[in-house]
Write a structure and sequence with these properties.
Length: about 575
């Protein structure tokens, strides 16, 4: 194929260079202009390629795979608005630090800005949403151009994986012929083998010894709490839990921190940080003198508001790159990989700092959990059932908006390997099921989705993909016929406009939607039947629907909050 014509003389080595660097999957959408890329990926035995009808869904599929494997995934599309459909997932990838290699095929420069069909300005079209963007030369079968392509593969790979990880964009223009037809004289017989770059990434940043000592000295002399926000590193939970256990200090764990479920010690993992911050415990009996922060901004608004309101407390933020401190409350920002920082600090601890301090937190956590009211059907009851019924080794994707907040409030620590994911970089509800499909294909874990009705409607294309790719994903769908989270906000006090613009009821029958897609559908009427369905391995895509009432759900959460607030 490489010797057929100039397009393949460039794209075949380009794909091989990516494969040698470690690329193992390309998500491709159909089109004519991207044929030289699609065929080159299809012909490479080292790179699996998947085909997707919809660019938006394909981009989130790649995002989900890259998030869970922590390896770049390539996206390949044709020219025109197809490339624009990638933007939501690219934005999520940039904010959440997910490595994507976005390859947009384009028409050659002479066709631009002259009214040629399916031709838009693609060069740099993603702006600051990507870490790096470049336009490749039009392929030629000469050593300079071919090696420029293999070098671009190396540059794209390194830019995507260097800290902080993120998406990169290559725009690749092609002239006809787009198929690997032999063009006599197009590729010289003596065209030399290209140079294939290798890349050695720098080791994870480790905090300087003197900074470790500074934090250590504060930790052993002050009442300390760890706040662990969302992280992408599955290796973070073990050293973070080890640090909390050795020092006997509490660790407030976001559901996406990796700490709420696993085989690491869970004794000091606090799942009720949102409730405790909201109730005022952190300003009273549980008020710390030192906060050690890892990861992205926590899901809990009450907790982030508390961090912002307590800048007088020493707050140390370990951050490998960037500056994720929206409350501007960090008194010290230390450049370090979170996993390395937790490991180094844990190794420095020789004896418990304050067992009585962590006991106070444990008692507060237990008292809050004791106050839970989890009637079925309700959102909290669904989370409790996921907690008790998900199989070991499962992956769970959680929708933004209401589901992640319910998960944060009610998913208690569990000694089982459950990998939890969510698109919390930009906090959008789109692409949820597609992201889960990427994780399922990339990790082979039994994969579940905790979704709302609106996040499911946003990503219906993924149902067709799941069936076509034979991915046995389980969608646990809480259907409250609209935007449930808004019923808890001040906007609900304006009923004349609320339902149309925020409540947005749709009245759709998900059983009929599932039937249209050929997807298995269940409507469990009891908590036990829901648990049995979750615990039963899926053999094909399925929807488990739980119907709830928005107003009743809002009333339940408000009454529970009043009960917990009373202590």
């Amino acid at each position: 194929m490489r010797t057929s014509n100039r397009n393949y003389a460039a794209t075949v080595p380009f794909v091989e260079a990516l494969a040698r660097l470690g690329l193992r999957h390309a998500a491709i959408t159909p089109g004519s202009r991207n044929t030289p890329l699609a065929f080159a990926f299809a012909a490479n035995p080292e790179v699996a390629d998947s085909s997707h009808h919809d660019e938006r869904s394909a981009a989130f599929f790649a995002l989900g795979m890259a998030r869970s494997t922590r390896q770049p995934v390539a996206l390949v599309c044709t020219s025109g608005t197809a490339a624009a459909e990638y933007l939501p997932a690219i934005i999520e990838g940039r904010n959440a630090r997910i490595p994507l290699i976005v390859l947009t095929a384009d028409r050659p420069p002479e066709t631009r800005d002259v009214g040629a069909p399916q031709t838009i300005d693609q060069h740099g079209m993603y702006g600051r949403a990507v870490k790096w963007s470049y336009e490749a030369p039009v392929p030629e079968a000469n050593p300079d151009i071919v090696n420029a392509f293999t070098a671009l593969a190396g540059r794209a790979w390194s830019a995507a994986v260097d800290a902080p990880m993120g998406p990169v964009h290559l725009n690749l223009p092609f002239r006809d012929p787009l198929v690997p037809v032999v063009v006599p004289g197009d590729v010289p017989d003596d065209l030399p083998e290209p140079v294939f770059p290798s890349y050695s990434p720098p080791p994870p940043a480790t905090p300087a010894v003197e900074l470790v000592e500074r934090v250590f000295n504060s930790l052993i002399s002050k009442k300390t709490v760890i706040v662990a926000g969302p992280t992408n590193d599955p290796d973070f939970a073990a050293p973070a839990s080890d640090l909390a256990t050795r020092a006997q200090i509490p660790i407030i764990a976001d559901p996406l921190s990796g700490l709420r479920a696993g085989n690491h010690p869970l004794t000091n993992v606090i799942s009720t940080g949102d409730w405790l911050a909201r109730r005022g415990d952190l300003d009273d009996a549980l008020r710390p003198e030192l906060v050690i922060r890892f990861g992205a901004t926590p899901t809990s608004k009450s907790l982030t508001n508390w961090l912002a309101a307590n800048r007088d407390i020493e707050q140390v933020l370990f951050e490998e790159a960037g500056w994720r401190d929206p409350s501007a409350s960090a008194s010290h920002l230390i450049r370090s990989d979170a996993t390395r920082a937790a490991t180094v600090l844990a190794a420095r601890i020789n004896e418990p700092v304050s067992p009585a301090w962590v006991d106070r937190w444990r008692h507060a956590e237990a008292a809050v959990i004791e106050s839970y009211d989890l009637p079925y059907p309700s959102e909290p009851a669904v989370v409790e059932t996921l907690n008790t019924s998900l199989p070991a080794g499962a992956a769970l994707w959680i929708a933004s908006s209401m589901p992640i907040r319910i998960m944060d409030a009610f998913f208690t620590p569990v000694e089982r390997d459950i990998a939890m994911y969510g698109n919390r970089g930009a906090n959008g509800i789109d692409g949820l099921i597609s992201s889960a499909l990427g994780t399922a294909v990339g990790t082979n874990r039994p994969t579940f989705v905790y979704a709302g009705d609106l996040s499911t409607l946003h990503d219906l294309t993924a149902l067709a993909t799941a069936l076509r790719m034979e991915v046995p994903v389980t969608i646990v769908l809480v259907n409250n016929d609209g935007g449930g989270i808004f019923s808890l906000l001040p906007q609900a006090d304006y009923p004349e406009w609320f339902e149309k613009h925020l409540g947005t009821p749709h009245g759709l029958d998900f059983a009929k939607l599932a039937e249209a897609f050929g997807i298995e559908h269940h409507l469990p009427t009891t908590r036990d039947s829901l648990g049995d369905l979750i615990a039963t391995p899926a053999t094909s895509p399925r929807i488990i629907e739980i119907r709830t009432d928005r107003q009743q759900s809002a009333d339940l959460l408000r009454s529970m909050w009043k009960r917990i607030a009373r202590g």
